[in-house]
Each structure stands twice: as structure tokens, then as C-alpha cells.
């Protein structure tokens, strides 16, 4: 018998909207179960006996802690794998590393500075591989962002999101989400930092309404949600020239005032106050950045249940 293909989570576009929706719904159900009781009585531990390998070759606070805590809350174990301390750091191939790890752990989260390494790991791994950020994309972040928008404002379909600043990895995953979740996305970036044309084309082919502009005010006008991110990602080198290119893309109170009166402000964090966002906006009434950070945990528990829970993965959010 051939074994079922592992449930990798590499890019949002590998999915249909319904599967992503089911993952988010399960995450929300588990969140309600845990928040709805003073102390969980007999928490179901659907991932008891399973082990997640967290392989992070770049710094992380949210991704590391949310996957680690989420896996434990579902009854599983986590081992932190630092690629620099593995034989990988001395030249062992990704192919061999993947085949060995597959014999030990039940799923792998990879954060890497090399987007091709993620595909390579997934190709050779017989257990699910989850994208924990590459220079190209950050799909788990967007699951949390959709959950956060919808908790505050209801269905995101048909609403307008403005992305301000760098057309980076988080922007790329947002563009894919626009097609899969049916929201309108306007991106304001400097010309040289526009998001990948291929991703924009893919989203538009599926009917997504994507607007590219260099004018932040045009992007934000009437928007239901304003999103930004650092001007210097982990895969970029910081330079005075780079910061200068983004100077007109700071999310200020004045810019937020052009959005819908009840617009949300989101940021995947870590933030650089005074660069991509002012303190006024970050700490202000529109900002939901810490709800957004918390939802990394909840969305990823839905994702872990999907990746590791087998055929009946959606049952693990059921009340006893
Ligand atoms: N937003 C996010 O992925 O944060 P970390 O880099 O701390 O994981
Ligand atoms: N765009 C940022 C996101 C950090 C979570 C980076 O890649 O560094």
C-alpha cells in the first residue's frame, strides 16, 4: 500500500479556500474551548505522543513560541533543532536530513533564509513540512491575520485590505490569501520594492482584485484594514538608502485617518516604531497587533491538527 502524501503546508496557493477555512475554524473552536472554561477539565490531547521538530535557522519569537506552546497544548512534544548545530551545518544534505528526521519526528517546521531549501526538505520528507517563513513567503502569519480580522470585523470576503511598505514575504502571502479568501488588496510600495509580479498575476487569474500603487494614500482610502511590516526583513541588508526609499510609506495617524473610521491596523511584528509605523498608530485604538500575535497560536493549532490529525482531524475541536 502506498502511504498517503504528507500534509505539507508550504504556500497558501497550494490550497483551496475551503481547506484553509476549515483549518481556521478548527483553530477558533479549540480557542473557544480553552478560553470558555476557567480551567480546561479534560482537555482532549489529539496529538499525544507526536513530536514536532522546530527547525529555525533565523531568529524567531512568535513562530517558535506559538508552535512550541500550541503543540504542547494539543498533547504533543517539541524538539528545537538548530540547523547550525546539526550536521546540516557541516554539509550533510537536506535530502538526507529530511529522510532521517522523517524517521524520528511527526512533522517539521522550517524557517530558512533559502526558499528553495523548504521545497527540497518537503520533497524528501515523508512527514508534513510547515513553512515557518522564507524570504519568499510567510503563510502561517496570514492565517493568524485572517482570524484576527474576522474576530473583530466579521467575514473578510469583499472587504478591502491596504498593504503599505515593502512587497516582501508577508505581502506575497497576503496576495495569495486575497484570492483564496476573496478580499480586495491594495499594495502601496516603492516601485523597486513591488511584490513579485508572478504572485500578483496568479491572484488576478483567480479573480482577485489586486491594486498596485506607489501612493500610500491611494491604497489606504476607505480601507477596512491597514497592514505594514518592517522595511528591513531578515533576508535584506539594511542601508540608509533602503530606509530612505520607504520614508514616505510610514503608517502615521494622518494616513490611518484616510482609512474607514473603524479600520484595523495590523503588523506581524517585530515592529520598528518610528520607521514603518508611528507610536500613535501602533499603540492607538485601531491597532490589534497583540490579538494578531496571539492568534498565531490558535491558527497554528488548527494547522497542526490538520497536518498531524489524520482523517478525523476536524473532530479534535469537539466538546466532550
Ligand atoms: N511574526 C513572526 O513571524 O514573528 P517571529 O519572527 O518572532 O517568529
Ligand atoms: N518580513 C519580515 C517578517 C518577520 C516576521 C522578515 O522576513 O524579516
From TrEMBL:
GO terms for biological process: citrulline biosynthetic process; L-arginine biosynthetic process via ornithine. Signal peptide: none annotated. Residues 158-306 form the Aspartate/ornithine carbamoyltransferase Asp/Orn-binding domain. One of its GO terms (molecular function) is ornithine carbamoyltransferase activity. The keyword Cytoplasm applies. It is an enzyme of class 2 (transferase). It is found in: Cytoplasm. It comes from the Bacteria. Keywords: Cytoplasm, Transferase. Pathway: Amino-acid biosynthesis; L-arginine biosynthesis; L-arginine from L-ornithine and carbamoyl phosphate: step 1/3. GO terms for cellular component: cytoplasm. L-ornithine binds at residues 169, 229, 233-234. This is Ornithine carbamoyltransferase. It comes from Gluconacetobacter takamatsuzukensis. The lineage of its organism: Bacteria, Pseudomonadati, Pseudomonadota, Alphaproteobacteria, Acetobacterales.
Amino acid at each position: 500500500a502506498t502511504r498517503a502524501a504528507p500534509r505539507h503546508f508550504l504556500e497558501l496557493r497550494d490550497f483551496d479556500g475551503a481547506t484553509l477555512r476549515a483549518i481556521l475554524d478548527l483553530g477558533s473552536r479549540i480557542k473557544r474551548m480553552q478560553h470558555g472554561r476557567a480551567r480546561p477539565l479534560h482537555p482532549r490531547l489529539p496529538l499525544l505522543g507526536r513530536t514536532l521538530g522546530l527547525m529555525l535557522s533565523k531568529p524567531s519569537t512568535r513562530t517558535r513560541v506559538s508552535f512550541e506552546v500550541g503543540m504542547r497544548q494539543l498533547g504533543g512534544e517539541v524538539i528545537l533543532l538548530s540547523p547550525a548545530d546539526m550536521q546540516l551545518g557541516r554539509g550533510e544534505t537536506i535530502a538526507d536530513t529530511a529522510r532521517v528526521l522523517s524517521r524520528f519526528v511527526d512533522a517539521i517546521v522550517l524557517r530558512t533564509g533559502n526558499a528553495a531549501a523548504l521545497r527540497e526538505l518537503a520533497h524528501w520528507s515523508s512527514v508534513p513540512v510547515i513553512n515557518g517563513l522564507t524570504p519568499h513567503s510567510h503563510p502561517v502569519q496570514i492565517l493568524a491575520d485572517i482570524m484576527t480580522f474576522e474576530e473583530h470585523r466579521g467575514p473578510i470576503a469583499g472587504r478591502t485590505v491596504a498593504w503599505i511598505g515593502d512587497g516582501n514575504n508577508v505581502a506575497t502571502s497576503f496576495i495569495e490569501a486575497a484570492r483564496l479568501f476573496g478580499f480586495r488588496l491594495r499594495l502601496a510600495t516603492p516601485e523597486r520594492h513591488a511584490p513579485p509580479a508572478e504572485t500578483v498575476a496568479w491572484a488576478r487569474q483567480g479573480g482577485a482584485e489586486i491594486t498596485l500603487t506607489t501612493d500610500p494614500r491611494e491604497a489606504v482610502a476607505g480601507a477596512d484594514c491597514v497592514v505594514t511590516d518592517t522595511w528591513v526583513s531578515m533576508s535584506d541588508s539594511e542601508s540608509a538608502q533602503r530606509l530612505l526609499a520607504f520614508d514616505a510609506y510610514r503608517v502615521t495617524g494622518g494616513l490611518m485617518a484616510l482609512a474607514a473610521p473603524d479600520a484595523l491596523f495590523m503588523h506581524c511584528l517585530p515592529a520598528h516604531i518610528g520607521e514603518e509605523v508611528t507610536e500613535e498608530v501602533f499603540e492607538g485604538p485601531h491597532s490589534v497587533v497583540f490579538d494578531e500575535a496571539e492568534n498565531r497560536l490558535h491558527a497554528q493549532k488548527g494547522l497542526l491538527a490538520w497536518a498531524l490529525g489524520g482523517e478525523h482531524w476536524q473532530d479534535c475541536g469537539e466538546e466532550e
